[in-house]
Amino acid sequence: MSIRTFTAPDPETLVNGAQPPKKRRQLRRAGESYGFLAPTLILLLVLMIVPIVMVVGYSFQDNVILKSSSEFTGIANYVTVLTDPGFWKATGNTLYFCLISVAAHLVLGLTFAMLLNSRLISAPSRAFFRALYVLPWLFTAAVIAVLWRMLLSPNGIVNFLLDTDVEWLASPQLALGTVTFINIWAGYPFFMVSLLAGLQGIPQDLHEAASIDGASPVQRFWNVTIPQLRPIIVSLLLLDLIWTSQQFALIWLTTGGGPIDVTEMLSTYTYKLAFANYDFSLAATSAVLVLLLSMVLAVLYVRHQKARD
Amino acid sequence: MALTTQGRTRLARSGVLAGLILGAVFAAGPVLWMLSSSFKSNTEIFELPPRLITGSFSFDAYTAILTDSETLRFFFNSYLVAGAVTILTLLVAIHAAYAFSRFEFRGKRVLNVVIISVQAVPPITLLIPYFGLVVGLGLYNTYPGLILTYMVFTLPYAIIMMTGYLNTLPRELDEAVRVDGAGSLTALWRVLVPISVPGIVSVGIYTFMIAWNEYLFALTLTRTTEMRTVPIGIQLLMGQHSYEWNQIMAMSILGSIPVLILFLVLQRYFISGLTAGSVKS
């Protein structure tokens, strides 16, 4: 999803938002506040708490959802999933897809941000290029998928420009690299936009001081720019890891996880268990494992955000 | 021989410009090709050598999409679902944000943690129980099924952003109204909501975009063609029209226009608000 849900909060916004209330009113107003929160609480219960309990419950039973008689089976589903080579193949692919995507997003995003921040170019030109650079971000995964399927088709323009005749998305050797490339194209603007704002926030006198001390542009990059951007970069990397590890639509609409299982990700693997094999118990088990992975990353992210403030 | 300062600046400028142009081809080239293909006839799309504008330049593909009742239905569904999600999300989030911004209550910290962590839960994990719930409640292949489940994506963001916005407004504003004997609800709707319109619009636009773009739940929780949304519609075009690429591209562009327009409206806010992650006071 190219407009990604940037819902990264300042973790303290909600908690510390209120200024201390006047004591004598506190009781009545506390009761009142639950009234305002009631719809949210109900929705969180129905959309979050209950489903998580359900999916964890499913993962310890067999024949869930489709059959009426399911039995508690302990950790049998976990043994099945964790001993399935397909699961580990999907895990490996997800890891490759995530690490390459995230690293490339950072490098491209930072490069473009620095080019766009260059004082050597006039402001209107920079605004023009920024508008172009942001483009991939504005298309949803379904659009990005069909667009690249056209560009990469055997008689498409990419093969023409490279003077090749390659089935980019159907070749077992190339498919994983190709979907990763598409994801890189789709995702770098998020880094670029955030890092550009970060670059503009670096006090100019830091660079000037470094220049006076005789630092070369390369030295200034490593000793001024990067340390100043570090907190943003860590946030972006963690967020991108969370999102990329959950990517479904782009894979599903380009390769569907194939050929065979060459581009199978944890998301498509889980989806197929449920909606191709109709084994909702194993799908729930895989879904819980994916959840644990995301939660580890989320905890790291929230901790980092707190440290930032 | 050493370059003069002026010469060096000029060289650096050329380097930056070359980099910018190269990057622009990478970023915008595919989009330009999408646009160009949507104006071609289907046979010209893969002709060699490729041309950006061909003799048969026409709006036929767009006409085909916009006169097909099936594809129009995809747009109708997307507007309906995204519109309903936006209105409901705003209504719920404004009240929650008011509580977070102006009240102290037991469980605030816990609720804060829940709302933040909701955002990290993988959609695929929720999909399995949602499928069970939606089928069980008779909401499978219905608008309410999609609208309700989309709120899990939009609500946390909306609450956090609205709370951040309300935190920037002086407490005296609504206190004054309450001292005059009005209730909290009146203070919220008569005083805070009217001056929060910019914040509400931003959150609303973002909510709309998320709902408009959603794919996984739309794919799984609806079944019939007349219930499908635009992202699924684009996928369906690939199957049923035996690769009418010009129409697929036209549909992709038409399906992206609402988001493009909303992004233009929101651009300043996007660029400035992103790294902060929230509207800080």
Automatic annotation (TrEMBL), chain A:
Alphabetical UniProt keywords: Cell membrane, Membrane, Transmembrane, Transmembrane helix, Transport
Record's subcellular location: Cell membrane
GO BP term, pick one: transmembrane transport
GO cellular component: plasma membrane
TM regions (residue ranges): 34-60, 94-116, 128-148, 168-191, 236-260, 280-302
Membrane topology recorded in Swiss-Prot or TrEMBL: Multi-pass membrane protein
Location of the ABC transmembrane type-1 domain: 91-301
Chain residue ranges for the region called Disordered: 1-25
Chief location: membrane
Top-level taxon in the UniProt lineage: Bacteria
Name of this chain's protein: Sugar ABC transporter permease
TrEMBL record, chain B:
GO biological process: transmembrane transport
Keyword Transit peptide in record: no
CDD domains: TM_PBP2 (cd06261)
GO CC aspect terms: plasma membrane
Keyword Membrane carried by entry: yes
Record keywords: Cell membrane, Membrane, Transmembrane, Transmembrane helix, Transport
Membrane topology, record value: Multi-pass membrane protein
Localisation per UniProt entry: Cell membrane
Membrane-spanning intervals of the chain: 12-35, 79-98, 110-131, 143-166, 187-212, 248-266
ABC transmembrane type-1 domain ranges (all copies): 75-266
Family of the protein in this entry: Belongs to the binding-protein-dependent transport system permease family.
Protein name per Swiss-Prot or TrEMBL: Sugar ABC transporter permease
